[in-house]
Specification:
Helix content is 18%, strand content 28%. The strands form 2 sheets. An 8-stranded mixed beta sheet has the order 1-7-8-9-10-6-5-4, with helices on one face. A 3-stranded antiparallel beta sheet has the order 2-3-11. A hairpin with a 6-residue loop joins strand 8 and strand 9.
Length: 201
């Protein structure tokens, strides 16, 4: 089984053999962004322009690690049950894949466009299949997209992975944040409902 950390190892992309098979895995589906959550005396966590305002009652602990990443302990103090937010890597995702030659033949000009094209039913290409495999979309059960103003979330749900992966794109930023954990739909909606884009202090 792949873990979310495996998707961050960009070298995997370069080692995948080309394929001429038809596109595998799901096409992208649209998901409504949940209504903004009400938050009194909320805990504010901000990475550049991505902001989370979380009710204190919903978070038991926040742990910063050296990835850099933070772990949100929601229901227990078990780190294996925590939700992990990882800052963008590579920092400029489109430039990285373009330099590697993996965007040849694909219409990609932004991080959002990259994740959108990975979910479209278009004639299969070796580069598209490499990207879909690197992010686990080829074996996913569902690939979902939700939008709220300047924020877009791409959810990869799969029975073969131990975590659900949520890639967060902030309009105008060159990278993609990764939110990973053992999500049920209620936890996903709780986190998304308290996310927004805010100017750094």
């Amino acid at each position: 089984m792949r873990s979310f950390a495996a998707t961050l190892l960009c070298g995997v992309l370069l080692g995948l053999a080309p394929t001429t098979q038809a596109q595998t895995g799901p096409s992208i589906e649209t998901l409504d962004w949940p209504d903004s959550g009400i938050c009194h005396d909320c805990m504010r966590l901000q990475f550049d322009r991505l902001e989370l305002r979380l009710p204190p009652a919903s978070i038991r602990r926040v742990l910063f690690s050296g990835v850099p990443a933070l772990h949100l302990f929601i229901d227990s103090d078990d780190i294996h049950d925590s939700v992990t937010l990882v800052v963008p890597h590579p920092p400029d995702i489109v430039a990285f894949y373009r330099e590697a030659g993996l965007l040849n033949g694909l219409e990609v000009s932004s991080p959002k466009a990259l994740f959108e094209v990975m979910g479209k039913s278009i004639p299969a290409s070796p580069n598209l299949e490499r990207l879909r495999k690197a992010y686990g979309i080829d074996l996913a059960d569902r690939y979902l997209m939700a939008e709220k103003e300047q924020l877009t979330a791409f959810l990869i749900e799969s029975a073969y992975q131990t975590e659900t992966l949520i890639y967060l794109i902030v309009e105008g930023e060159p990278g993609a944040y990764l939110l990973a954990g053992k999500f049920d739909r209620a936890r996903i909606e709780m986190l998304l409902s308290h996310m927004s884009v805010a100017a750094p202090p």
